[in-house]
Amino acid sequence: MRFLSLIPALVVVLFTSGASAQAWEEYVNRENFFTVNLPGEPTMTEVPFTTAKGTKLTSRVFTANAAADSILAGKYSMTVVDYSAAPMELAAALEEVAATERKKGAVKYDGGGMVDNIRSWRMTIETPANRRILTEILAHGTRLYIVEADTPLNVPPPAQFQASVQILDENGVRIRYRSVGSTERVR
Fold first, then answer.
1. Which whole-number Å values give the CA distances from 118 to 45, 73, 147, in the listed order?
2. Is the pLDDT at 5 greater than 70, yes or no?
């Protein structure tokens, strides 16, 4: 009887120690105007980015990886492309990136959405290599943001990663509009 009373305590200890080992960290990047939760400090690389019209831009890719044996297993990235040199091309960028993403595998979800009333595009793709790619594409100001999680199919979808994206203003404050197409912000 005494042994049975220890089982709930043991379960709590096991789950809390596992959860703390898999904690997400909020990563804030004021230079590129975003914040996102990641499984650790990301590395940043600059990668060439070519628009559909052939304009050469530079993207910054912030990547963090979670261990293959963890419930968070996968690669998590935030790509920021500055379109200030090609502002007229930004309007078509969401669809251009979405078309590229669709080529990666079987599309399971593909639809428009809103992040803080900022137009976005969300996709879930299953690849031939038994991977799941969750993508969210946003455009704000002169920047394109591509949020991507690449995880095995046998781990839970990383919804907390995708849902954590926030676009920031020049003061580092989250931008949230009152309605779609509005310039009035929620304070």
1. 26, 29, 14
2. no
Range(s) of the domain holding residue 151: 24-167
Q: pTM value?
A: 0.84
Sequence-ordered alpha helix ranges (H) in the chain? 2-21, 90-102, 159-163
* C-alpha to C-alpha distance for 133 and 98, rounded to whole angstroms: 12
Residue 175 lies in a domain: no
Q: Is the dihedral of CA 128, 157, 24, 18 positive or negative?
A: negative
Higher pLDDT, 121 or 72: 121
The CATH number given to whatever domain includes residue 157 is: 3.40.1000.10
Task: Inform me whether the pLDDT recorded for 181 exceeds 50.
Answer: yes
In a domain, 184, yes or no: no
CA distance 60 to 80: 5
The answer to whether position 176 is within a domain reads: no
Closest among 160, 156, 131, 129 to 147, alpha carbons compared: 160
**Which tens digits make up the pLDDT trace of 85-110?**
999 999 899 999 999 999 999 999 99
